[in-house]
Amino acid sequence: xxxxxxxxxxxxxxxxxxxxxxxxxxxxxxxxxxxxxxxxxxxxxxxxxxxxxxxxxxxxxxxxxxxxxxxxxxxxxxxxxxxxxxxxxxxxxxxxxxxxxxxxxxxxxxxxxxxxxxxxxxxxxxxxxxxxxxxxxxxxxxxxxxxxxxxxxxxxxxxxxxxxxxxxxxxxxxxxxxxxxxxxxxxxxxxxxxxxxxxxxxxxxxxxxxxxxxxxxxxxxxxxxxxxxxxxxxxxxxxxxxxxxxxxxxxxxxxxxxxxxxxxxxxxxxxxxxxxxxxxxxxxxxxxxxxxxxxxxxxxxxxxxxxxxxxxxxxxxxxxxxxxxxxxxxxxxxxxxxxxxxxxxxxxxxxxxxxxxxxxxxxxxxxxxxxxxxxxxxxxxxxxxxxxxxxxxxxxxxxxxxxxxxxxxxxxxxxxxxxxxxxxxxxxxxxxxxxxxxxxxxxxxxxx
Amino acid sequence: xxxxxxxxxxxxxxxxxxxxxxxxxxxxxxxxxxxxxxxxxxxxxxxxxxxxxxxxxxxxxxxxxxxxxxxxxxxxxxxxxxxxxxxxxxxxxxxxxxxxxxxxxxxxxxxxxxxxxxxxxxxxxxxxxxxxxxxxxxxxxxxxxxxxxxxxxxxxxxxxxxxxxxxxxxxxxxxxxxxxxxxxxxxxxxxxxxxxxxxxxxxxxxxxxxxxxxxxxxxxxxxxxxxxxxxxxxxxxxxxxxxxxxxxxxxxxxxxxxxxxxxxxxxxxxxxxxxxxxxxxxxxxxxxxxxxxxxxxxxxxxxxxxxxxxxxx
Lengths: 448, 313
What we know:
- The structure holds two protein chains of two kinds.
- Chain A has 21 helices and twelve strands.
- By secondary structure, chain A is α/β, with parallel strands linked by helices.
- Chain B has helices spanning 12-18, 22-28, 30-59, 73-79, 82-114, 118-133, 136-147, 153-160, 172-200, 204-212, 217-245, 249-254, 266-276, 280-288, 290-312.
- In chain B, helix 5 packs parallel to helix 9 (172-200) and helix 13 (266-276) packs antiparallel against helix 14.
- The chains are: A alpha/beta, B mainly alpha.
């Protein structure tokens, strides 16, 4: 019988503590508890199943029961659920957050620096838009996910561009970036876009970009504004909308609005999709969902579609990006498991499965992942979505930046930029009056 | 057989046992029973109406981050915004126009239905109530498809007949018209059923007496029907005004407040600020702005109802 010395007791206790810290899960059927996720309900059929599969794989390996509730973004139900859970202090452990929602709930979300910094050190630079939206006061409060994350480049009918504009989009932007001719790519600027839009309008196939107050409208106008260097509010709360850059961008927007169908002012985010799928439209700015639906509903149109970068402006080529994030509530009872699951589903191998299941719709926030084979293989025509992830000199942007994110959220959600364009074009208001209106609205966003 | 023996009179102990306790007495009171039966409803109202109402008042007095009490600062801020005053204007136009046309259509159809032969009346009553019975979000989606900016069924018909299409939802003024039209379509049956009930309660003798005096149909309507219906008209208008001012579904589904913010109502603007932009206190303050407007309307209308009630009494 061995005697129990003070040293052996301390040694055993230390070993026990170390084991508890190093391996938090006790093996056995779901011995490590459960995790609940409230996830954005994907609109690509079958895409949710890929996430289910990954979650099950991780859960089985770590003996954690993972339960996912898919919540639609129709009617902002996902945002309402997040707001309700934040107010109540109870709900899912992990929650999907679209666009500005991380900032909105920042003080109720667990810091996730260890997860995101680990991913950055492995996969390289992350999207600046993701950083702007989820890194609050130096701390990551959300993990950028590929699921539902999107950019909105041009999705055009290459047959109509060839016939009526004289541009061969497939030759300028082939499904291999190394073959892009810099001079031809550079020539694709906003002036060229206006000319193309005018020709296509004349030919009876107008381009269609929404000018309502939903995200597709805000994003393309945001890209145009950024290309001309328009700053609405800077990072130090200075209102900068009254500028020559704004006047230049607004003039381009007016020329574009003149050759688009009048109903763009009432389009929701599906309006431009329907326009292209119907065969009446020649180009929109959208993720490949419009092509995917056309493949089912109007295959002849789908076969003529091609994704390619947005036009360039004097300050660069900017495409609107809307990333999604996973956040872990501070009230979650299984935070470490939540972080481990998020790390697992953020690995490139997992992302590849998610991108494939979404037929290339889901877009990771790491440029190093844009070489996934899905974007090369999807068709017809093969390579149609190769130009969907930002390539070449295309940079991602979001309306509202570089203002403080709480200010940016107001600018974006109140669609101040598209209302400006609508007032100027549809409302025929004087540009100076529109800018004055915008200044007053922007002043309001700075409210403490 | 002792348990079957009837005894007359009782001992002091028996009397003490038979005396009802205070609880029993309380339970025997009608008001107590009434209260207990209402209790589930009271609990629901407290939890789902009174608590959220007070919570939203509390929320409206916090700063954007909900960390500091700011008193009425959110309200004064709203009052300094042009867009907010546009929302006030639009909500007022929407509510007044919609309630007026709902009341007018309700009154006309109620008269028509009332004058139908009793045999077919029930069928017509049922059919006319359909818009009010269908869930609003669902029927509004149907309307949205008919007004669809690109493939509107109405425009298809107009164009087939050689007319130009109408920008139902893309032109701000047509968009306002469209949302009011849908609200009138949805709400008119409520007025119809209330007015029909009121019409049926007007004593037939009054009309007979008027007919003997040589009154025509219009005179009967002005001097008998309308005065007899004044209270029910006032109450339905008040009720509808409250519901219409607070309308959310129709505008959110059809226009989401656009184009150029020109169809926003209090509820949709509050949703935009509170949920979509993440400023819950400002959203709460916006929705609470309806309260004084409706309270003043309610005071005037209910005062009129009480006055007429006393006159009749």
